[in-house]
Design a protein that fits this description.
The strands form two sheets. The chain has a five-stranded mixed beta sheet with strand order 3-1-8-5-6, with no helix packed on it. The chain contains one helix and eight strands; from the N terminus they run H-E-E-E-E-E-E-E-E. With about 110 residues, the chain is an alpha+beta fold. The protein has one domain.
Length: about 110
Amino acid sequence: MKQRKITLFILIAIFSFMMLYGCAQTAGSEHQVTILTGGFATVHVSKSTAKQGEIITLSYEKNSSIRFKSWWVTEQHTGREVIVTNNQFVMPDDDVYVYCDVEFLGLNW
């Protein structure tokens, strides 16, 4: 009986650790790419889900009332910035948010 309680305690401890630190994801699992633009720009990504290490390409539709400034990609759970070079980034082992920073040029009514 004592052996079962110890085993159960260890299993609960391992499960709790996995849930707290995100270790429950299996290796090689796909991660979500979420676009956040505020509705001011139309952004496209080459993949909406990707595995760690895959290359994601970013693009946007030109608009006469805004000017593209830069990309900003962050890991969802850690908030760490992901480096974007030539409109591409390498997918980290986490879901990411993609932001398109734009400048407003004026209203075209």
